[in-house]
Specification:
The strands form 2 sheets. The chain has a 6-stranded parallel β-sheet, sandwiched between helices. It contains 12 helices and 11 strands. The chain is α/β, with parallel strands linked by helices and 292 residues long. The radius of gyration is 20 Å and the shape is elongated. It starts with a strand and ends with a helix.
C-alpha cells in the first residue's frame, strides 16, 4: 500500500513517528511537508504542487494532518485518485470553517480527541476517534536519577481549554517546563517522580502528553476526561485529581509510597504499547480497506 503523508516533518513533529508507523506496517510512504513547501511556493502554488504530487505518486491513501491553510480543492482533486483521510489532533478551539470544509470532503475524519467526534459526525458519517500515539524513539524509559518530585511540561497560561492550569500552579506548586521537546522532554519526564497532565477543561479528551509520559514508564497524575475509563483504569495505569487539595494529597501519597507508584508506572507502560505508531497506522489502513 502506498501512502502520501501530508504533514509537518520537523524533528519534533508527531508526524515523523506516524509516517514511520506506516513504514513499519509495510507501506511505501511519501512525506510531503506542506508548511515547508508553502514557505517556498506560497499557499496556492503549494496546493497545485501537492495535487501534482498525488498524480505522480498514485497513492492508495492520502492522509492530511490537519493541514490548516491548505484549500479544500486539494482534497477534491485527491479524491479522484486516492482514498483520503483527515487526521485532527486538536480540541474544539481550532474547529473552524476551513476545517469543516475539509471534513465534508474526506473519506474518513479521524480524531485524536474523543470530544471532537460528535461535531465531526455532523459533517462526515465516517468520523472516528483514534488515540494519539507517542514516539518510541523519543518517549521511552531511561535509567537516570530523579531530579524533581512533581513536574508539568506544557502551557499554563489560561485560555478557553487551559483555564485551570495556572490556578493549580499557584495553589499547589510544581516544577514547570515549557517549550521542552523531543529527547529533552523525555529526560525531564524520566527525571520526575510524578508527571502531571491537565485535560482540556471542556472535557474533550487527552493530549498526546498522556501517552508520552506512559511510554516513558513514568507516573502520571491527571485531571479526568470523558471516556478516560474506556482506555485506562484509574489506580492501575495512572491516577487522577479534581481539585488542588486532592492533588496535594495525591502528590504526598505517591512520593511516600514509591513501590505502589512504580507498579502503576509499569502497568501504564505495558498498556500504552497498543497505542504506538505502528498500531496507529494499522488502524488508519483498516479504515481505508473497509471503504474500498
Amino acid at each position: 500500500m502506498v501512502v502520501l503523508f501530508v504533514g509537518v516533518f520537523t524533528p519534533h513533529s508527531t508526524n515523523v513517528a506516524q509516517a514511520r508507523g506506516f513504514l513499519k506496517a509495510g507501506c511505501s510512504v511519501y512525506e510531503y511537508d506542506y508548511r515547508d513547501r508553502a514557505k517556498s511556493l506560497g499557499d496556492s502554488r503549494r496546493d497545485d504542487d501537492l495535487i501534482s504530487t498525488v498524480k505522480q505518486t498514485n497513492p492508495d491513501i492520502v492522509i492530511f494532518s490537519k493541514c490548516n491553510q491548505m484549500h479544500y480543492r486539494v482534497i477534491d482533486e485527491c479524491n479522484k485518485y486516492s482514498k483520503t483521510i483527515l487526521w485532527y489532533m486538536d480540541a474544539m478551539n481550532n474547529f473552524d470553517q476551513e476545517l469543516i470544509e475539509k471534513i465534508k470532503r474526506v473519506d474518513w475524519f479521524v480524531n485524536g480527541i474523543e470530544g471532537v467526534v460528535p461535531h465531526g459526525l455532523e459533517y462526515n458519517k465516517n468520523t472516528v476517534f483514534l488515540a494519539q500515539c507517542p514516539d518510541e524513539e523519543m518517549n521511552f524509559p531511561l535509567s537516570i536519577e530523579y531530579k524533581y518530585d512533581t513536574t508539568f511540561i506544557g502551557n499554563i497560561q489560561p485560555n478557553n481549554t487551559h483555564s485551570d492550569r495556572m490556578q493549580y500552579f499557584e495553589e499547589v506548586g510544581f516544577n514547570h517546563f515549557d517549550n521542552v521537546h523531543g529527547l529533552e522532554h523525555n529526560k525531564v519526564v524520566n527525571a520526575s517522580k510524578i508527571n502531571l497532565n491537565f485535560a482540556h477543561t471542556s472535557t474533550n479528551g487527552a493530549s498526546v502528553r498522556v501517552f508520552k509520559i506512559l511510554a516513558a514508564k513514568s507516573f502520571l497524575l491527571t485531571t479526568p476526561w470523558e471516556g478516560m475509563e474506556e482506555m485506562f483504569t484509574v489506580g492501575k495505569h495512572l491516577d487522577i485529581f479534581t481539585t488542588p487539595e486532592e492533588l496535594k494529597d495525591k502528590i504526598s501519597y505517591y512520593i511516600n509510597n514509591e513501590a505502589e507508584r512504580l507498579q502503576i508506572c509499569t502497568r501504564g507502560h505495558e498498556l500504552v504499547q497498543k497505542y504506538m505508531p505502528t498500531q496507529w497506522a494499522k488502524e488508519i489502513i483498516k479504515y481505508v480497506t473497509q471503504s474500498i
